[in-house]
Amino acid sequence: MMLRMHNLHGTKPPPSEGSDEEEEEEDEEDEEERKPQLELAMVPHYGGINRVRVSWLGEEPVAGVWSEKGQVEVFALRRLLQVVEEPQALAAFLRDEQAQMKPIFSFAGHMGEGFALDWSPRVTGRLLTGDCQKNIHLWTPTDGGSWHVDQRPFVGHTRSVEDLQWSPTENTVFASCSADASIRIWDIRAAPSKACMLTTATAHDGDVNVISWSRREPFLLSGGDDGA
Predict the structure, then answer these.
(1) pTM for the predicted model, two decimal places
(2) Which of 8, 85, 91, 208 is 20 to 30 Å from 193 by CA-CA measure?
(3) Which pLDDT does position 115 carry in this prediction?
(4) Per the CATH hierarchy, to which homologous superfamily does domain 48-76+110-224 belong?
């Protein structure tokens, strides 16, 4: 779902006690003209959506989508961005095009559904996906706007992979966290079975649900079921 909000304004101060009826009527007319507007365009999707992450392939905006059906799909967003800018184009899109919108790529090689998904901030089109069966797969962009997904998962976690984060400074390094309570650092230059370089086995007293790598400082933050 692509949403565009526009005609947004800051809040106005309340009318003063001495304002007359004419001023109040003008204010009401202004308020009608200043009402916020919302446009939306949707793409059909089979099954619940677990997570969405947006990136750019050169000048093309795309969204990676994790489905409860165990598939990860990539959708092109340019057409959606175009139609939400113009009401007439949006009406034509909803009538003639929306039902035919398809993903530009789909991967069904995971053993089940998942939530972990991250685009590399340093290598265009490089993607990581992690599932609830402990597997992490690397997506490498290929010529023609497609991807090669390595069928060999990164080996290390023993339970669901909850989140993934590419390093903001290293092209080949990423972090992962899991319901097995661990946080791991990986280097994709090594074989998937040997790519785990650092492990904090008990980073939390329970599931580690989220991690975030600072873009400015060499820090990685995490949050878990233990409330920490």
Answers:
(1) 0.85
(2) 208
(3) 98
(4) YVTN repeat-like/Quinoprotein amine dehydrogenase (2.130.10.10)
